[in-house]
Amino acid sequence: MSRPRLPRTLRVRLTAGLVVLLALACAAVGVGTVLALEGFLIERLDQQLVQSGGRFPASLEHEGRPDDDNRPDTRGQADGTLGARLLDGHTTDAAVVHRDTDRRLTLTNDDAHDLAGVPVDGRGHDIHITGLGTYRVVAVRGDDGDVLITGLPLHPIEETVHRLEAVETLVFGAALLVTGAAAAYWVRLSLRPLDRVVDTATRVAELPLAGGEVAMPEPLPDTDPHTEVGRVGAALNRMLGHIGDALTRRQAVEERLRNFAADAGHELRTPVATLRGHAELALRHPGPIPPEIRHALERMQSESLRMSTLVEDLLLLARLDAGRPLVHEPVDLTRLVLDATGDARASGPDHRWILDLPEEPITVTGDEHRLHQVVANLLANARTHTPPGTDVTVRLESGAAHVVFTVTDNGPGVPEPIRRDVFDRFVRADTGRSRTAGNTGLGLAIVKAVVTAHHGTVTLTQHPDHTEFRVELPR
Ligand SMILES: Nc1ncnc2c1ncn2[C@@H]1O[C@H](COP(=O)(O)OP(=O)(O)O)[C@@H](O)[C@H]1O
Ligand SMILES: [Mg+2]
Q: Mapping DSSP to helix (H, G, I), strand (E, B) and coil, where does residue 354 land?
């Protein structure tokens, strides 16, 4: 069952609730006053009828004998007074006062029947007389066993009551309109500070708190502790303060970490280079070198080479983290991809390298050296993390706003456990292969950092039969 949708805002609900309550109160007051007034007027009418004590209907018997001393006084009866005299349930006389004289009534059968049915109890009853309308009548027993009915028209009372109803409807309607408008305005005014709270809370909710520089929104001005909205505002301000503190601390820690990585890298560079130089020097010794010593020296040489790559990668990441400006120059991506694939083909002749380049050369603005590193790292991964004979497709396309570079291979794929964090530092599959290949787990972290510094994105999509790394750079 579908219900009509009501507006859900607090504003609308408060205003509507107020108006409905007021309408109910008005209706109660209206019904109450109308009933009370009607009851009071009828009671007074009944008193009047009882007091008249059947004098007017009794007088009807003596009609036409004005000299009769027994004839009761008919004057002084109100205009419209009805009198009827009944003998054995039959109406003998019936008249109505009109401008101080009696006017004989010809009753219909129904009227006569109704009159005969009035209980003789000296209390008021309603009956309808044809041509005259509704009457309030009182029946009393006369001296000679007859029944004397006196009645007064109800329509003046009905008119008064209708008048009151009309006036109340008008007044209450106007009051509802004015109150509704005032309530809507007042509710809006009272809830206005809540809008600012909502605004600020929404902005905080959208802040990228996990990383980078974050600009906190201004604290809220409405913090009156006597109002609910003020308390919410104060709580939100306290929360803003805590978040701000936490952010400052996080940024300080990150800064320190970056500095440490950069310092350590710088400090390591020279000793590692020295180590490698000495190993090379020792290997070039003219005299005979025992095989174990040669092996040890060669291991020293290759490991120090690996270590200097690691140090260079760490330094590069530290520089990118610090947000150092990159070189901004036109880079011929087509050329770059072509060269890098040539290098990869030379290093991995057992893989099938498939190039898919567009006709026109594609250029982007950026740092050629770093972009070369991106392409080289992705190609190196496609070579070192797949078995020989794997097809690697290198594709460059240019879209409307982006240049898209993809490296796809049909190798075994990125292992499931590291797929989510594969672009994080030191994340690598813990296989014997990658250890011996001298992998550090920094390659994709560098790819991500460089691409992000170029305002681009890099994604990994793992299909059942192929792995796709996709880099998008703005044109
Ligand atoms: N083309 C690929 N196929 C399968 N696994 C991959 C591929 N590229 C990356 N990986 C996985 O992602 C890990 C992280 O890569 P990377 O950051 O370049 O580090 P490294 O190559 O030094 O191990 C790799 O160790 C490897 O397990
Ligand atoms: Mg790698």
A: strand
